[in-house]
Specification:
Mean pLDDT: 81
Shape: globular
CATH class of the largest domain: Mainly Beta
Structural class: alpha+beta
Number of domains: 2
Strand content: 35-45%
Distance between the termini: 62 Å
Strand order of the largest sheet: 2-12-11-4-7-8
Length: about 240
Amino acid sequence: MVTAARAEEPLVADLSEHLVKITMGFEGAELLLFGAVDGEGEIVVLVHGPPETLTVRRKARTAGIWMNRDEMTFESVPAFYQVMATSQPGNWLPDAVRERHQIGVGHLELQPARDPRHGAGPLATSEFREALIRRKQELGHYGAEVGSVKMLSARLFRTDVLFPTNVPTGTYTVEVLRVRDGTVISAQSTPLYVSKIGVLAEIFGFAHDYAAFYGVFAILFATLAGLSANAAFRKV
């Protein structure tokens, strides 16, 4: 993906906020991305989240029981991915350019981790890759469709960047590409941060730093809650 701006054509863009705060009762977020260009061209916006390692498993029926049989691990997978554009890129953007800049989930570089113990053919890799994308779309972390970038005038544009309630935390990158005649003529990228704050951040930090104590506390809390509910039920 593009990581640095090119200066051939003027392009200026920014976000209404650069921090998405996840607090108790977080119901998702909506940010405004706005900008200006000088001259003609299409606008493409890419929003991708921090890289993560994911393992995709495939179940098979064995002796009447569904069990995990095969699996494939992918590294450096974008935890979140969205595309917005002034029009559908597939109608005017060559596949080679979409591949180079990873525009669209079908062009993401999702490569399985190398495992010297066994290999997988292209067909199996493609099936696991499609399963990963499908699961991400079900979670709302990958956009199933290309969003809309609106031109407000000959120079000004805007789009809304939506985040679900289960948005992954971390450092994101927002890229704005300007395309003319099938070529990216200018680009700009800016960071975006998604972070837990307040009580939720303290609980998350405690669970991460003191996992064993947190596990014991969670078990005790669940047990006490169950006993309290049982006692209340008996009194009714």
